[in-house]
């Protein structure tokens, strides 16, 4: 079982920066793929960025060059540094921990935080 708690959201002007944090409790944080998702009103939840257990990263095209995901396994925490924020980045941001095991039977471990609001507005 993994519990995830996000923090760091808030109101920021266009062009500003925020850093989101997601603290995980439970076991084996380092073996989980960690991701940040977001959901704007009336839209589907979408992947923003993810970092694997081997620290490989991937980003959605609209945030490449502006957002950086990182993890600190010693602190059981994943971060999302968001720079050059735009109004279209406004959403609730969710932290996700995911792990798939294949043996002895295929099983997916998937955990979500409660979300943190990010609002980009002048």
Structural description of this entry:
- With 122 residues, the chain is mainly β.
- The protein contains no helices and eleven strands.
- It has strands at 2-7, 10-12, 18-26, 33-39, 46-51, 57-59, 67-72, 77-82, 91-101, 107-112, 116-120.
- Strands 2, 4, 5, 6, 9, 10 and 11 form a seven-stranded mixed β-sheet that branches.
- The termini are far apart.
- The mean pLDDT is 95.
Number of strands: 11
Which structural class should the secondary elements be placed in?
A: mainly beta
Query: With helices defined by DSSP (H or I, 4 residues minimum), what is the helix count?
Result: 0
Secondary-structure element series: EEEEEEEEEEE
Which helices and strands, and how do they pair?
Blueprint: E1 2-7, E2 10-12, E3 18-26, E4 33-39, E5 46-51, E6 57-59, E7 67-72, E8 77-82, E9 91-101, E10 107-112, E11 116-120
Parallel strand pairs: 2-11
Antiparallel strand pairs: 1-3, 3-8, 4-5, 4-9, 5-6, 7-8, 9-10, 9-11
Keywords:
single chain, mainly beta, seven-stranded mixed sheet, four-stranded antiparallel sheet
The gist of it:
This protein is mainly β and 122 residues long. The chain is built from no helices and 11 strands. 0% of the residues lie in helices and 56% in strands.
């Amino acid at each position: 079982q993994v519990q995830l708690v996000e923090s760091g959201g808030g109101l920021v002007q266009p062009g500003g920066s925020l850093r989101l944090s997601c603290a995980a409790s439970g076991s084996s944080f380092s073996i989980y793929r960690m991701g940040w998702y977001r959901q704007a009103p009336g839209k589907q939840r979408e992947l923003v960025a993810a970092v694997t257990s081997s620290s490989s990263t991937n980003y959605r095209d609209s945030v490449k060059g502006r957002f950086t995901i990182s993890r600190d396994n010693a602190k059981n925490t994943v971060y999302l540094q968001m720079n050059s924020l735009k109004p279209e980045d406004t959403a609730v941001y969710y932290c996700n921990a995911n792990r798939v095991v294949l043996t002895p039977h295929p099983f997916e471990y998937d955990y979500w935080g409660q979300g943190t609001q990010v609002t980009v507005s002048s």
